[in-house]
Amino acid sequence: MAVTAGASAVPRKDGFYDKYIRNYQILTPAQLKRLAEHKYSATGTSLIEPFMQVFWRWLVERVPLWWAPNAITIVGLLVNVITTLILVFYSPDCKQEAPSWAYYFSGLGLFIYQTLDAIDGKQARRTKSSSPLGELFDHGCDSISTGMIVLSGRAQFVASEPMTKDFCRLRVLLTMA
């Protein structure tokens, strides 16, 4: 029995879990129908998002069409992980102070990650390559990045140089704004 995938009208072969979903009634037919009809929709509630949307729309128009949205997602994740690992290298238990450049580098990495995370979906819609798998991949990378953001944010509380400390506070504030 073929199951219709997400937003696609093309039937696909049963996946590994499809027989269990049907046989054990994990989801009711109404829930399965709702799942098949699901369309991802996010609304921004950030104070700075309206301003950033202008920048993100401008930026995505400069991204080559051949650059896959999932590649944008993974590059953003790698930037976030690498800049966080630099902080962890200097302050493995978040008690030692790292060099001030490492805090600034981490803030830049966070900005790059958030920018790439914001434009990957725009690129997917632009190239007509949106898919439930791409959405899952994006959310998976976002969950890893959340841990990195918390870790780097915690490491920044030990900064003692006044300008670096102010930058770290601003970074935390803008991340939550």
From TrEMBL:
<dbReference type="GO" id="GO:0004307">
    <property type="term" value="F:ethanolaminephosphotransferase activity"/>
</dbReference>
<dbReference type="GO" id="GO:0005789">
    <property type="term" value="C:endoplasmic reticulum membrane"/>
</dbReference>
<comment type="similarity">
    <text>Belongs to the CDP-alcohol phosphatidyltransferase class-I family.</text>
</comment>
<dbReference type="GO" id="GO:0006646">
    <property type="term" value="P:phosphatidylethanolamine biosynthetic process"/>
</dbReference>
<protein>
    <submittedName>
        <fullName>Choline/ethanolaminephosphotransferase 1</fullName>
    </submittedName>
</protein>
<keyword id="KW-1133">Transmembrane helix</keyword>
<dbReference type="Pfam" id="PF01066">
    <property type="entry name" value="CDP-OH_P_transf"/>
</dbReference>
<dbReference type="InterPro" id="IPR000462">
    <property type="entry name" value="CDP-OH_P_trans"/>
</dbReference>
<dbReference type="InterPro" id="IPR048254">
    <property type="entry name" value="CDP_ALCOHOL_P_TRANSF_CS"/>
</dbReference>
<keyword id="KW-0812">Transmembrane</keyword>
<dbReference type="GO" id="GO:0005794">
    <property type="term" value="C:Golgi apparatus"/>
</dbReference>
<dbReference type="InterPro" id="IPR043130">
    <property type="entry name" value="CDP-OH_PTrfase_TM_dom"/>
</dbReference>
<dbReference type="InterPro" id="IPR014472">
    <property type="entry name" value="CHOPT"/>
</dbReference>
<feature type="transmembrane region" description="Helical">
    <location>
        <begin position="65"/>
        <end position="89"/>
    </location>
</feature>
<keyword id="KW-0808">Transferase</keyword>
<feature type="transmembrane region" description="Helical">
    <location>
        <begin position="101"/>
        <end position="119"/>
    </location>
</feature>
<keyword id="KW-0472">Membrane</keyword>
<dbReference type="GO" id="GO:0004142">
    <property type="term" value="F:diacylglycerol cholinephosphotransferase activity"/>
</dbReference>
